[in-house]
């Protein structure tokens, strides 16, 4: 079974609800083939409800950008999996490098969140990737292996078949410096082979591995042509409906 491509928009801390609705209205008519790829929009928490309402009846799915692993509790400022689900989200980004870098998220926290996403039937989009320093020290594989090993602790292989991994080299995020398709392809191949070792061949073959980091309309197709790349997690270029549509339609 070939893997269906998936293109996800990570809007980060941009767009109030009115801007999010405006995006959906302009974006929907621009999708050329509604069945070719799955499309997931991940707005900020305060725009989730508006986006869920705006995408009703369309092929778009909606995801959160982060969540706590607990279902409820005294965790000021956090969003729980139950809250994401109640508002209509089906996906959630976990372990984005900005969460790791600026908010102290660890591999162990990523693991708790993944287990909680499985329990609460949310599809996790799990971000992994090395920093520039790590790449230059030839530690890319070591970092990816550690991130995967800890992320997948106690995960059932069957549950993992629906997981989405996003390989996002930190040095390529928001910098305009994209990994070459070959570089990304090699990292994806490595991640998939480690997933096979940790969770079995079936999970590894079903799991979609997206590339993220300065994906733009002009580099999307070269990246997508790599057999190991199953789609993209797009930041900056997903904020504009025309440029995101070009990436979706590549
Ligand atoms: P950019 O596409 O802006 O580089 O961001 C990538 C990213 O972090 C997506 O999660």
Q: Would you summarize the structure shown here?
A:
With 250 residues, this protein is an alpha/beta fold.
Give the DSSP E fraction (strand runs of 2 or more residues): 15-25%
- Small-molecule binders: 1,3-dihydroxyacetonephosphate
Q: Which consecutive residue ranges, at least 5 long each, have pLDDT under 50?
A: none
The oligomerization state is single chain
Domain module count: 1
Q: Which architecture name does CATH use?
A: Alpha-Beta Barrel
- CATH class category: Alpha Beta
Helices and strands, in order, run as EHEHEHEHHEHHHEHHEHEH
Got a strand count?
A: 8
CATH superfamily placement: Aldolase class I
Global mean pLDDT: 97
Q: How far apart, in Å, are the first and last alpha carbons?
A: 22 Å
Computed over alpha carbons, the radius of gyration is 17 Å
| DSSP helical segment count | 12
The dominant shape is globular
Q: CATH topology, which one? A: TIM Barrel
Helicity range: 40-55%
């Amino acid at each position: 079974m070939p893997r269906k491509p998936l293109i996800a928009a990570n809007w980060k801390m941009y767009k109030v609800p009115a801007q999010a609705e405006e995006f959906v209205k302009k974006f929907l008519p621009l999708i050329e083939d509604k069945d070719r790829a799955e499309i997931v929009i991940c707005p900020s928490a305060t725009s989730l409800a508006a986006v869920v309402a705006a995408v009703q009846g369309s092929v778009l799915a909606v995801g959160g950008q982060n969540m706590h692993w607990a279902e409820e509790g005294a965790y000021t400022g956090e969003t729980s999996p139950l809250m994401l689900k109640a508002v209509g989200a089906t996906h959630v980004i976990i372990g984005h490098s900005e969460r790791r870098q600026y908010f102290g998220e660890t591999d162990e926290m990523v693991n708790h969140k993944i287990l909680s996403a499985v329990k609460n039937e949310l599809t996790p989009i799990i971000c992994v990737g090395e920093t520039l320093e790590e790449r230059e020290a030839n530690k890319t594989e070591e970092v990816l292996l550690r991130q995967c090993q800890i992320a997948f602790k106690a995960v059932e292989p069957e549950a993992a078949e629906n997981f989405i991994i996003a390989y996002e080299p930190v040095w390529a995020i928001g910098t305009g410096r994209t990994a070459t398709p070959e570089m990304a392809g090699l990292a994806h191949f490595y991640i998939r082979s480690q997933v096979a070792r940790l969770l079995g061949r079936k999970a590894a073959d079903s799991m979609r591995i997206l590339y993220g980091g300065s994906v733009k309309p002009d580099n999307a197709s070269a990246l997508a042509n790599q057999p190991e790349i199953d789609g993209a997690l797009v930041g900056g270029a997903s904020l504009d409906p025309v440029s995101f549509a070009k990436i979706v339609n590549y």
